């Protein structure tokens, strides 16, 4: 997941250790990139993000272009003097509204074109709205689209690989229109099978069934089938909700839950209680 950002803060050198395309050639390119931060003092916690600085010159005379990416792995012990972290990067393009011409996204193309061994500069880590509950009996509902799923991968590593004692129910609901979800599905070849305890963890993917269906529409379609369980868990006092992705993910989740709750007012009341009790958090970008 990525966001534009203006504040830079401290920077550190890093090197690309691996870059793997995780989507089919027929869909949008998404790469899983592993970085080694060469400063052993660099530390992060799950849910945080880093900034990637792209050297210029750029438009308007800017010497650097900065883009923020969520960290997609849990904390680890420094290896060989460096700290390893993973990010998910979708190669992006944008259209000029006046000319109609297509231009490459600066940071995403810079990272997708980079090779193992290439050096770059990062900033951060930056604070995250996500806070993992300390109680291992807490239920976790994680709802995301696109590369917004990155922080949830880090959470899964933390609670199942690093801690290994999570007792609460964990549900991951993912909507997309590409093969990105293949990393996070409940099957033998998936990424999360290395971490989850199948007694508590379940991931539900919803891919678009129509060519022009968006990630949020796919998520809404998939959530509808699981809405009863999601609502039941949210009514329990130890459930925490995390939303990540494009802004439409919140709208899609609200529509599905309002219908399941019986009315918009009933859902708003439950959602407000979750917010007031500190059990609702969002990492949303445009």
UniProtKB/TrEMBL annotation:
Pfam family name, one: NAD_binding_1
Annotated ranges, domain FAD-binding FR-type: 9-132
Keyword Oxidoreductase appears in the UniProt entry: yes
Known cofactor(s): FAD
Entry keywords, A to Z: FAD, Flavoprotein, NADP, Oxidoreductase
One annotated GO molecular function: oxidoreductase activity
Superkingdom, taxonomy of origin: Bacteria
PANTHER family: PTHR43314
The protein's name: Ferredoxin--NADP+ reductase
Source organism of this protein record: Allochromatium warmingii (Chromatium warmingii)
């Amino acid at each position: 997941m990525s966001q534009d950002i203006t504040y830079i803060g401290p920077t550190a050198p890093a090197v690309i250790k691996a870059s793997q395309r995780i989507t089919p050639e027929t869909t949008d390119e998404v790469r899983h990139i592993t970085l080694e931060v060469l400063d052993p003092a660099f530390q992060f916690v799950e849910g945080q993000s880093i900034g990637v600085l792209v050297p210029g010159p750029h438009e308007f005379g800017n010497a650097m272009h900065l883009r923020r990416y969520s960290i997609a792995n849990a904390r680890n012990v420094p290896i060989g003097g460096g700290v390893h972290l993973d990010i998910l990067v979708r190669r992006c393009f944008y259209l000029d509204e006046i000319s109609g011409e297509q231009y490459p996204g600066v940071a995403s193309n810079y990272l997708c074109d980079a090779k193992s061994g290439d050096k770059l500069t990062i900033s951060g880590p930056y604070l995250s709205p996500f806070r993992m509950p300390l109680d291992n009996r807490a239920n976790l509902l994680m709802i995301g689209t696109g590369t917004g799923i990155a922080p949830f991968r880090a959470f899964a590593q933390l609670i199942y690989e690093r801690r290994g004692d999570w007792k609460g129910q964990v549900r991951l609901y993912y909507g997309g229109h590409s093969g990105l979800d293949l990393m996070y599905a409940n099957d033998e070849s998936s990424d999360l099978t290395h971490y989850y305890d199948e007694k508590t963890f379940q991931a539900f993917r919803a891919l678009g069934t129509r060519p022009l269906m968006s990630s949020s529409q796919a998520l809404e379609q998939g959530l509808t089938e699981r809405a009863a369980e999601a609502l039941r868990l949210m009514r329990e006092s130890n459930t925490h909700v995390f939303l990540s992705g494009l802004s439409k993910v919140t709208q899609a989740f609200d529509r599905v839950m309002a219908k399941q709750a019986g009315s918009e007012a009933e859902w708003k009341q439950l959602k407000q209680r979750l917010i007031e009790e500190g059990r609702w958090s969002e990492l949303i970008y445009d």
